Amino acid sequence: MRVLVTPDYRTLSCQAAEIIADAVRFEPRLTLGLPTGSTPLGMYEELVRKHSGENLDFSRVKTFNLDEYIGLAPNHPRSYHTYMHLHFFDHVHIPMKHIHIPDGAPGIDTDLESIRYEQAIQQAGGIDLLVVGIGSNGHIAFNEPGSSFASRTRMVDLARETRANAGRYFVSEDEVPRRAITVGIGTILESRRILLLASGSGKSDAVARALQGPVSEDMPASALQGHSDVTAILDAAAAPCRDEC
Ligand code: F6R
135 C-alpha to center of ligand 1: Å? Predict the structure, then answer.
């Protein structure tokens, strides 16, 4: 695993965007796996800037988001559909038919949707470059501690810590959905290349355990140690502490 420690969040965002931009320039038909959350916001902003300022062309790129809440309609202000359109898709001219996000709308058959989503990834030829954040409890996508490393796209219960962290985006923590559809760790590990992003001191413990600790299903992100092409981009605050600790 390559680990790049950047001085700050802005540099992390620019480096992540540059890696994606290089990959898209090299392979315009790239299939991307994309996260939501606070960490990739700067990366999306920079990619939008590259699209408008440097003519970075996303018109042939396909995207698969990693997860979506269950029980929120796509147009709900807190759905990951809304997040992605607001921060990225609406600004970079990706054809709608190239965009894939699990459907967690109320009443959806989550088993069928999970199978459909997993098949759509396979039919697209798999994910070339998957970007993933990390939860403070070590989750990747919404694979919470205890998730099998062989898991595929499925419905999951969100950990209490995950819902508490998401509470800042909702009126109250009670309104955070209890479940989500997420790609599995097995799905993630099949991606050809993985970019792990972590920012802020709240992530440093999880990052240390994920990158340097034992590989264990108690720490989902440690599964990435078994992948042959992972680049972790950390800002200084998220980097495992060294001499001063
Ligand atoms: C979101 C996702 C999550 C987040 C993680 C970190 O699509 O898959 O695993 O990446 O919860 O979230 P932030 O970036 O908000 O700290």
Answer: 6
Q: Which residue has a Cα nearest atom 9 of ligand 1? A: 141
**Nearest ligand 1 atom, CA 202:** 16
Tens digit of each residue's pLDDT (9 = 90 or more) over 105-151? 999 999 999 999 999 999 999 999 999 999 999 999 999 999 999 99
Q: Which residue has the tokens 């499925």?
A: 154
Nearest to 132 by CA among 209, 244, 24, 223: 223
Q: How far is the CA of 166 from the centre of ligand 1 (A)?
A: 9
Ligand 1 pocket, CB under 6 A? 35-39, 66-67, 133-135, 139-142
- Dihedral sign from CA coordinates of 152, 43, 160, 99: negative
Q: Which amino acid is at 233?
A: I
Is the pTM of the predicted complex or chain greater than 0.90? yes
Which parts of 55-192 fold into alpha helices (H)? 80-84, 90-92, 110-123, 160-166, 185-189
Tell whether the torsion through CA atoms of 218, 222, 226 and 230 is positive or negative: positive
